Records
---
Amino acid sequence: MTTENKRKKIFSQLRKDLVSGTWVLFSTKRSKRPDFSVKEKKKKIYKEDIEKCPFCKDNVQEQEKDVLIYAKNNGDWSLKVFPNKFPALSSEYKDVNIREHGPFEVMDGVGYHEVLVTEDHRKDIADLKILQIAEILDAYQERYIALMNKKHIKYISIFKNYGHSAGASIDHPHSQVIAMPIVDPDVFRSLAGSEKFFSSHNECVHCVMIDREQESKKRLLFENDEFIVICPFVSRVSFEMRIYPKKHLSYFERITDNQKIKLAEAMKFCLSKLKKNLKDPSYNMFLHTSPCNGQDYNHYHWHFEIFPKTNTWAGLELSTGIEVCSIIPEQAAEILKK
């Protein structure tokens, strides 16, 4: 066996993230023959499951205080948004009430926590038509704009958990919108890295990465007129995907109707590939966009990130903070494109 072949077989490499400056370890030896099928057994959906589902049509009552409803021609709803019954943050607080607690700083959990539900219990985003996905994106935008000017709100998190191991407590397809009085720490680090790169190079770090991916094509999964999908060079989990606008755009809430259609195409591609090629794993999908706290973030580039549940944090990850992937993104892209 040649040295090069031996090196490829026992592959281990550390890659530094261009934005955050953190390192990720890629070590394929940790998994001789990876099985990325979902570890939890997906149960078959029966009629009685739908009858008991709190998000299905007959069970979602008007007293849920709907904040948004998209109706169909027959009068039924195709999508609705309502307050979460078990909110992480509460709109009942009138002020953040920042105060000291010994050496610590505390504030009240002011905010809004909403649930976006689509009508069909059996159809998730991967199963929907492009226009149906665009309707979800339209609702994301509408709720974002409605919440961004509320008192004390500085950041709005939009995310989707799919599968119980990804944190979904209810099987019915749904997303969540949380408006909070602080900037999401993960986004804060991303913003800091983007600003630092822009100050040094006078260009967007995400645009630089997009240009590189279009040139190399090794990790490029999909592109249309408006969006590109990649497996990031420094993926934090195996088969991580990111959906970027090709143009430098900083604020998701300014998305146009045409861009929603194009984003829906990209999103369907990603989630369909997960379902078909990775045996339908659980995943988390979330938006990273500029905060709505009144500051200028033109250096930032909004995007969606998709994290399949293919990694488990253990001693190495918890003790060092270094994330470990057993599949390099170049190989992940090949598998997903099949």
---
Amino acid sequence: MKIDNLPHNWQQLSAGKQKVYKKFLQKADKNKVLKQLPGLHEDAFSKIDCLQCANCCKNYSPRFKTPDIKRISKHLRMRESDFIEKFLVVDEDGDFVTNTKPCPFLGIDNHCSIYDQRPSDCHRFPYTDEDVFIKRIPLTLKNSTFCPIVFFVLEKIEKI
């Protein structure tokens, strides 16, 4: 399935429901939510094709932690310092992030050229199958405005 299986205005719906989502996540039985997440995560990924979207790669950057930099620079046969100089900057939080948007590793077909070596943040995104979803509510809310998977999971979980 593709993103077009969601309402065409899913991003506006999500933006309009931020207070509802926040209230739900703050008051929800965390254990109950955590038990539901793996199944909802799988359901969302079976219905929504990330390659049709790639909003995360087009508009945001993951953090590149030291192990990520080591692994990716080795994969690209670059010195770590050259990799950092060519692709990364330090953001306001002191983290390494990409120096361009979209991500320099995103192809025009929305495939990642370093997919098997991608940063851990990319591997874990959109966190819909882990406790980050409920522990870092501001992150979940932000992600729901650009990631159809997060929107899908929030819509389903608030009805449980």
---
Amino acid sequence: MDLVKAEYIWIDGYHPTQNLRSKTKILNGPVADVKELPDWGFDGSSTLQADGNDSDCLLRPVSIFKDPIRGGNNILVMCEVFNADGTVHKSNHRAHLRELSEKFASEECWFGIEQEYTFLDLDGKPYGWPENGYPAPQGKYYCGVGSEQVYGRDIVEEHLEVCLRAGLSLSGINAEVMPAQWEYQVGPLGPLDVSDQLWIARWLLRRVSEDWGVVVSIEPKPMKGDWNGAGAHTNFSTKSMREKGGLKVIEAACEKLSKKHEEHIAVYGSSNEERLTGLHETCSIKDFRYGVSDRGASIRIPMGTANDGCGYLEDRRPSANMDPYEVCFALINTICN
């Protein structure tokens, strides 16, 4: 009998920024389908998901991936969290997205998420920055090359490799505007797939960084002052947006989004006001505007979309620490209703 190590991964109850948790279950394998996996319990009182006098919570597997770190037939398992009685736990935002995505399945919603993050030393200083003082001002770091311009490429390359081995649909990586800041892109995929894969990619990044003794920050403004923040720009389209004449559908969607700005900001990540200042390629958190090729807008309509008359929009408001289940829910709920 082939024994399989299944790493059950879930999102905890910390607020406003949830964390990833995981533990290993040994199973008889191989496992070919998520439906073959059993539910599993955990101590919710240690993850802010239950009280100590009634602490059991339930993990229900929803998607599986190859485990690129352990290799073999071992797997990574994304789970939803339920209460002991089988009802959806209040921290489980995936369940609500699951219901909404089924309702609007005919819209064929696609998402691509650009996850920015920052490497930190264990003392909280950005990885590779001078012991005293600061590196040169921003300018040459974005998509840079060379040891004086990029810090942490070895970790980034290892993360990319393990994500691809896991079967994740990463579409690219690049160094970002602030030194020690990077980005990877997931998608385009449907709402549940892109969200599951973004969380798994986050887990893999933290797991790889353990081996390097480096901390991964997805705070929206890891360094105060004249440094870019970290976002999770979310690209969105429906079937009608991707078809001829779709630009008018996109413009109508932007008008809908303008009326729900505060509702979206409420679920677009914590401390986002530190990043959305109107500076460093952002629109102020207090304002909403959209435009073609405008990286200072809330919603950017890409040049290619404008030229082709169809395509997708980019929501530049979500912060790096956003929950993709909530962001995807908000976009579908506002645009498709």
---
Amino acid sequence: MSNEVFVDFLNKLSQNTLMQTLDIKYTEADIEEGWLKASMPVTSVHHQPFGMLHGGATISLAESLGSAASNMFLDPQTQYCVGLEMSANHIKSVKDGMVYGKASVIHKGKRTHLWEIRIEDEKGSLISLCKLTNMVINKK
């Protein structure tokens, strides 16, 4: 599958899900190098009560990226993945605009995948640094 076809597949798969609700759009992938990018607007829908990007929305972007990215390495006929652990350090706040995430593979094993996900603002400043571990499951 080409990088462009994979991104299109993920965006179609996201219809009627949390990714659509938060307006997360997959934008770019490199299957060979093992990374996936996405964007998410920051609007009042994404805010916590004090008018800043909610950490949960940020983590939703990060987990959506890392989980989707694991599918680069799976045969969807025989395998799927589920998240095992997610951690995030929120570095800076955002009130509006766009945030961009990039998931990069750290470990691609037979049973687990480890991803680093960087969430940045429009200026390229680091907003959150996240880590996601996925477990690969064989379909029965």
